[in-house]
Amino acid sequence: MYYFGGIAMLVVGLGGLIFCQKQQRVNPAMQSVAYIFGLVMLVGFGFVLYSRLGGGEELEARENEMLFLYSRSAAAGKCLKAAAPGKKVLFITSPKWDAEPTRKEQVEAQVNAFKEAYGSGDVIIDSIEVPKNFDEEGSAIEDVMTVKEFKALFAKHPDVGAVVTDIGLPERCSSLFNAKTAPVVFMLNQGRVDGKTVKSLFKKGKIAGMVSYKNKADYDKPANSKDLLESFSIRYELVDASNYTKYQLD
Description:
The protein is of the alpha/beta class and 250 residues long. The chain is built from nine helices and six strands. The chain has a six-stranded mixed sheet with strand order 2-1-3-4-5-6. The longest helix has 28 residues, at 56-83. The protein is globular. It starts with a helix and ends in a 10-residue tail after the last strand. The relative contact order is 0.12.
């Protein structure tokens, strides 16, 4: 809308300037009108530039998608508040999450949405160790994460009672939860863990919940910026201890 409106204003403004330039020879008063057309052209240029730099509808669409992303963390907070209230929480995200300002802001917004729904601000953000050439190789985090890195991360934060993982869990992760003191987990993504293991950990009470996409989600419906949990229900479903047997988790 902004882009095409700006183009129209540019065309009208430029056409008006050309017309006024021709008419000024016989009617000097047209110079004032030329100023108006010049202003129209400048405003139109501003709208076009704004859209091209990510403003207007593109910005609104991006902000809408971010609200849906944050809604997942809000659902995690609500779920863990019921399953493991009052715990110190570890929020696991991608490596170098704080190296780039936009990514850092996004992760912090996710965590803030979780905190508000969980009812506690005692949350640590961290990630697993990855190979030194991880960025150069362009590997996906799921391709390099193993139980070893998660054990090291859990050992780094021994007083954590609940975990929210934005990168899922690795293959053969059952050993991470053998100890009675092992944290309860909410998975924003499944990662590499297979469905059989997920169901087993649900049964043991070690996975509190995870996110599933709705089969008939309305992707044209905008998020509700004032109610993230309502936004969550537009696209996603909460898989928890009460309903996990109904889902195909492979």
